Amino acid sequence: MKLHPFRALHPTPDSAHRVVSPPYDVVSTVEAREIAGDNPDSFLRVLRPEIDLPPGTDLYSDPVYATAAANLRGLIERGALVSDATPALWLYRLTMGTQQQVGFFGVSEVNDYVGGRIKRHEFTRPVKEDDRTRHVDTLRAQAGPVFLTCRDDDGRLAALQAELIAAGGAPYIDVRGQHEVRHELWPVYESTPLERTAEAFDRVDAFYIADGHHRAASASRARDLARGRTPDAPADADFERFATVVFPAPQLKILAYNRVICDVHGHTTAGFLDALGGAFEVGPPGAPGADLPAARHTFGLYVAGAWRALKARPGVVDESDPVRCLDVSILQERALSPLLGITDPRTSKRLEFVGGIRGTAELARRVDARGAGCAFSMFPTSVEELLAVADSGQVMPPKSTWFEPKLASGLLIHRFRAQGG
After folding, report:
1. What is the pLDDT of residues 369-417, one digit of tens each?
2. What are φ and ψ of residue 420, in 5° steps?
3. Is 162 helix (H, G, I), strand (E, B) or coil?
4. What span, in angstroms and rounded, lies between the C-alpha atoms of 249 and 401?
5. Cβ–Cβ < 8 Å for 386, 334
6. C-beta of residue 403 within 8 angstroms of C-beta of residue 96
7. Which of 232, 268, 396, 413 has the least C-beta neighbours within 10 A?
8. What pTM was estimated for this model as a whole?
9. Would strands 99-109 and 89-96 be described as parallel, antiparallel, or unpaired?
10. Running DSSP on this structure, what letter comes out for residue 26?
11. Residue ranges, CATH 3.30.1760, the chain
12. Cα separation of 187 and 177, whole Å?
């Protein structure tokens, strides 16, 4: 696989704490407005530019995209963002409590995505894809990277990362982001380490999208628009590549993606528990640890003010199918669809997805606040399960994975130069 160095647009060490922001898709407009506050350099003004427009502005209207482009120009004109003269790969280390992971930040080839060498495991939604495509095309820049992973069974990539970080000394950027995650960046400009990194990736047969399917799809569509305007641009024009961070799979951590349902579809509590008993062993209410599944194919159920442990009965799970053996699939096929009437989890207004970082107390709070319904806590999908689904050419059910820590935005931006149209 190829991961190319690029001329990054990035904050200065002094401005990074003002610029860094969460990704656009983990905060609402209200949250973005609160986080940005009166800070003119917050990158949320590029990612969620509606916060600088009157409340109620259509998120997909012309002024939103124009404001994003104007705010990016403002960051550059004020010197909060500067551009490298020399292409570099970057080592990007994230630390959240005891969880630490290091990625190689560069640019990948759009054709590797189109050709399936960058593998996906989710469907995309047209509205979000349209939005990110227009955002990239208007800014002439990719404001947020795609989070990739790859196998590193022999530890070569991890060993190279450690060596390069040790040689790099103090990080160029060292900043705290949302949830007190520490973000550190080291540039690699020199030819020898760049060649060694390229050789290491030559042994990698595929990249996998961990997070950022819409950003990857929009990079492809924005490339087609730019190529249509400038058909004679070189094959390595900036728009032919998109910003990515590649993490060795063993370093990653996936949290649960839990479910809250606003009702029990007309069942009494006793009737619902009895119906669940066909596919699951149902534990007693209030057992210690019932809210936290301890292994694959176990679940926590909150209903009628108490947690109960669920365990899939023998014979329920088809381990030969990498999608159907996922816990999210088991829950959907054995509970949400047949018992609760949620046949399409992508569109159901009765179903809420809650990231595992919020904890199981949040699930109980939501059910109790409504006075009805139920919640399921999940055992996290593993990275190996994700890779197996992608290798099979299939897709996961929606909201199967919640990666933490999240990548920050505003640290490294892939901007298209004039030849990019």
Report:
1. 999 999 999 999 999 999 999 999 999 998 899 899 999 999 999 999 8
2. -80, 10
3. helix
4. 14
5. no
6. no
7. 232
8. 0.91
9. antiparallel
10. G
11. 254-400
12. 19
